Amino acid sequence: MKDLLTVCLVASLATTIFGQSTDNEPTQAQACAQVSSIISSSLGVQPSATAFVLPAQVVQDCRESVPIYKEDALDLIQGLQAWLQSQSTLAYLRNPPPDYLMEAVDILGGLDNIQQKLVNDEYAGELAFQLDIAALIFSARDGHFVFQPDLLSIFAFERTIGGLLSISLDGESTPEIYSYADIAASRNASLDWQPSAIVSIDGEPVLEWLDFQAQNTTGLNQDPDTNWNALFNEIANSPGAVVGAMNAFPGVSNNYTFANGTSRVFPIVGIAQQDFDGVFDGPSFYQKFCNATVKMEAAATATSSQPVRTPSPRRPESTADEALLGYPNPFITDEDGTLAGFFLDTDGFRDTAVLAVKSFEPTNDHSFIDTMKKFLEECRRRRSSHLIVDVSSNGGGNILLAVDTFKQLFPTVDPYHTFSFRATDQLEVLMNYYTSSAAELQDSGEQDFANAGGDSDYDVSPLLDAAGQGYDNFDNYWRPFEVHNDSFTPLARYNLSNVEESEIVDGLVVSGYGNNRDIAPQHFASENVTMVTDGQCASSCHTFSHLMKWQGKVKTVAFGGRPQTSGQPMQYVGGVKGSEIVYLGNLLPFVSMLYDNAPSEVVEAADKTGLKTLQELGNYTLYRSADPVSSTFASINYQNFIGQFDSSYTPLQFVYEAADCRLWYSVDMAFDITAIWQRAASEAFAIGPNSTDVFAGCLEGSTNAPSSLSGNATLFDNGNVANVTQFIPSTLNATTDNAPDDSSSTDAAAENSAHDAIRQTAYSSLRGVGLSLVEKLELVPAFVSIGFAASRAAIEWPFRPAARADTLYHHIVHALIRKSSKRLSARQLSWIEGSFQQSYEDWCKKKSLPVNIITISDKTKGFWLGDPTSPVILVFFHGGGFIFDGNQGHIQFWHSIQETLKDRGKSLAVLLIAYPLTPRAVFPSQLEEAVNAVNYVLQDLERSPSNIFLGGDSAGGNIAAAILYHAMHPHESVRRIAHMNSKNRFRGVVLISPWVNFDVSLESFNRNKGKDYLQADKEEEWSDLYVGKSQPSAYSEPGLAPPHEWKGLVADAVLVTAGTDEVLIDGISRWVNDIKAHNSNISFVNGTREPHEASIIWPMFGIRRETETGHGVQTWLYDRL
Fold first, then answer.
1. What integer pLDDT is reported at residue 761 of this predicted model?
2. Across-strand partners of 530?
3. How many other C-beta atoms are found inside a 10 Å radius of the C-beta of residue 437?
4. CB-hemisphere CA count at 13 Å for 944?
């Protein structure tokens, strides 16, 4: 939380800077120095800070001050000219087919023009040069084709209005543009808020302004409607690209005018995520961030000389919580939520299953595949009749996972996926050499074979032709043909039965092939499956969607798109349709190894191609990109995906393909994704309330397009559209009615194992959350808003004597926490604070103390403070609303208690418990795991209850109190506590501001709302998440127990602490009185003017004064040790 305070204070400082009007504005030459000064000051406050808020104009002035070094720039252009020769779509970009919706662009000609401008000294600085490169690559509208130069990656610009919505208020009328926050407020019944549509931005009609942004600054897609959708906040795409993603300078603010006549100006801020140490002007900026020689020298020790494979870079590891925020609880999900299965539970849709495929790039491929199998098993068991497959905002990933998912849905169909390369002289040399080298080492060890290029992108021997026959050697394969004024290799397919290649390259074998032939029968008929899309499906997602449409005969429903195109269909895939992405960093080791090891005649042949330039300037070119280590921002589309029976060989990237139905987003769809699924099911299957016929409610003019299945289109043959029925395999005629009922033969052990896996998934939490770049950018306006809240709190403090904290600093801190919990998502807060385990490890390292982590179950860990062999142990459950992990505040509090006791001759070991969190784990999961933790100490460590204290703060105090209640009145589904009885009791229980009463109508919520940092709406939200669908009870809310049920506590003593200024105080006091009515061993310390758990929270913000509650814990424990 201290990191959050630091960033907020920096944001507050930035807010002050933005608001100043001064006659001493920095000159352009001083701008980088000012950036460096702001960042240095921020790092002085918080050395671990990584994001810095800056005035947008200062950022632009700094960028414009960076000089251009002509020879460096010419080297970069030469490197790009050699590298981009392999971009597979150059000819089609230069002269696209008539149905292509974007403008033509000559990539190589554009590079020549930039080179000539360099020669003519037409660039005033490095910024203009790099903007030209970025704009040229951007114009290809190809998510696989990326080169982001280094200068443009140092800063980003962020609009602070937050997310926008393009929605139809009634679901039928033409959409209007709203602020997401405006619509959200209108849905809060207590606010009586009327949203107003945005009608103009910066004086320009809003639709025109946004369409310009979509097509010119943020849209990497080949479809304009998809670029439009990418701007806006969706559950599957939050907060939308309109907030950022700008290379060109967007100005310092935007003026939004609303339909009700009001206007509001929202600032634009700049952000940086680098240390500017040593940067004081434009030239020093260039030396630090753009000098490739310096960057290569710094990375030299980490550079590998061995070839590497070319899968998409893996996204940071995450949990299912991260991917599925805003979704209902899934029936099953893989480890990180990239694949999740649901069953609709509303009238008219109860036979409908939903498969949400958010990505084909999971952290664990096998978890993804197993989840798919188990989901389909459950569909068979339930006899689900319809299936929605949601691929909204799926950016692709592992192509074999895409094929595997299709194969599990249509097990008897042989996936047809053919591709070709641009037949360059570079590729000819590489393929000839590596195919021959791999053949010589075919029988060698796996590593030697791989190092020789075996089964790489340059080894043709594993490839099959379009008919499924092997090419075997280079001569059989290399027979280029001319089409569209360019040269391409023959069509090829992956050999899915080649187990060795699949495992080496992608780490898996597709279901139904090789040693993975065991595959369940098809359950859903084609007409009972539909895909849902927002157009933002790309790469491997397109491969999957293409197979589903053309071979599975599955129709698609598209949502959204430009209001201006009402009455027109929308493409079902608007992202890149290329077959493979290749990164410059993956190619260069193969080039280097060829030059190091190939015979002289091969090297001579290479010297006659662009490979010589890549050998000389390839690394330089790579290190002029945004992220040379991962090469994420230096890539090309390597393979064109060619449709079956298309004798024109047109890459699917340039083939227009309409969805079968188009619908507008409605208000409820922005907040409830099941509304999208139900509407899609209503249209595709004619089921549910008010449904009349298939696609009857689609937008007029959006159905029966010639390139859609509803328009009776199928695979192209000589450019003509053929009848779909000619290509439906008989194996797809199965229906749910005659599908075999295998539920009765299900093996009980296997079923239990599946349920165990499901339960394990449900316990995953927000620990270790990784944020997307957009989510990180969204932090900037949030921090600015939090900074404003701090400033407002400081101003109002003198005028609110009855509704403020005891000191000005406390009042500001409490305001920061309140605003943070409102403005930041649970994912963002968890990312800022980090996981409990990471906090514990970092703290131990800082204190030079041993790290001692134990695994209590597959869902729960424990972190030791002190010697575990100590005679007395305190088992502690952290607070955090059941949704947030423990943090260093908890660790520091108990360490200081231990040190104080040690100084007074007492010893106490503390076991901090990291239990499963909401929303994935709900009651009684936390109680179950808490009991497991206590039983671990009682049974595994063989400790007596009389030598054990229980402890907890806030939500953790709830858990500790629930353990007491469970020990006296065992919950029927929760394991009992070992060795417990009325004579064998816990030594004591310490409850710090325990959250034992969820009633937010208590008077203290109103009395103390300006004094405490907790808020009624968040307390209600978090308690509802925790309780879930279970009935309220004393096990989840101990304050509900009648007083007499606390008689005979199984603890020698109980200490409860609370603050007079906390909103929970009335609920805590009422519960204390209840248990005091039948027990005499209860102590209650009420800290004067203290907020919620002040003894833990205040020190996190540098407040060192001793609290009454903290002193009470120390004294109480000392007396009982």
1. 28
2. 388, 555
3. 21
4. 7
> Contact, 401 vs 368, CB < 8 A?
yes
CATH 3.90.226.10 domain position(s) in the chain? 336-413+519-578+653-722
Average pLDDT of the chain, as a whole number: 86
SS3 257: strand
CB 879 within 8 A of CB 955: yes
> How do the residues of the chain divide into helix, strand and coil, expressed in percent and rounded to 5?
45, 15, 45
Contacts of 756 (CB under 8 A, 6+ apart): none
Q: CB neighbours of 190 closer than 8 A, spacing ≥ 6?
A: none
Answer whether residue 1075 shows pLDDT above 70: yes
pLDDT surpasses 60 at 957: yes
Where is pLDDT greater, at 431 or 798?
431
Could you give the C-alpha distances from 639 to 140, 152, 465, 483, 576, in angstroms and in order?
A: 15, 28, 15, 15, 12
| Helix, strand, or coil (residue 831) | helix
| Extended beta strands in 492-593, E state | 529-533, 555-559, 580-583
Yes or no: say if 267 and 157 are a contact pair by the CB < 8 Å rule.
no
At 395 the three-state DSSP class reads coil
| CB burial readout 525-536, b (16+ within 10 A) else e | bbbbbbbbbbbb
pLDDT of 1003? 94
Q: State the average pLDDT over residues 974-993.
A: 88
Span 167-188, average pLDDT: 90
| pLDDT score at 219 | 76
Q: Tokens at residue 1107, please? A: 């609290």
Residue given tokens 């899309």 in the structure block: 533
Q: Hey, what CATH topology would domain 852-1119 get?
A: Rossmann fold (3.40.50)
**990 three-class SS:** strand
Strand partners, 913: 862, 877
pLDDT the model gives residue 84:
97
pLDDT tens-digit readout, 291-333:
998 888 877 754 444 444 333 444 444 566 666 778 999 999 9
CATH topology (fold) of 336-413+519-578+653-722: 2-enoyl-CoA Hydratase; Chain A, domain 1 (3.90.226)
Question: CA nearest 670: which of 181, 1008, 116, 190?
Answer: 181
- CA angle in degrees (0–180, nearest 5) for 799-802-804: 70
Residue 258: name the closest of 183, 200, 202 by CA.
200
User: How many other CB atoms sit within 10 Å of the CB of residue 795?
Assistant: 9
* Model confidence band, residue 579 (pLDDT cutoffs 50, 70, 90): very high
CA dist., res. 767 & res. 833, Å (int): 10
Q: Is the pLDDT of residue 740 over 70?
A: no
pLDDT in tens, 54-110: 999 999 999 999 999 999 999 999 999 999 999 999 999 999 999 999 999 999 999
d(CA 696, CA 681): 12
* Measured CA distances, 952 to 352, 970, 980, 1057, 1083 (Å): 43, 20, 20, 11, 15
The per-residue pLDDT for range 200-242, each reduced to its tens digit, is 999 999 999 999 999 988 778 999 999 999 999 888 877 777 7
Q: What is the mean pLDDT of residues 401-414?
A: 93
Give the sign of the dihedral formed by CA 1041, CA 1046, CA 1050, CA 1054: positive
CATH 3.40.50.1820 residue ranges for the chain: 852-1119
- Beta pairing class for 418-420 and 634-642: antiparallel
- What is the b/e burial string over 9-27, where b = at least 16 CB atoms within 10 angstroms of the residue's CB? bbbbbbbeebeeeeeeebe
pLDDT score for 797 = 65
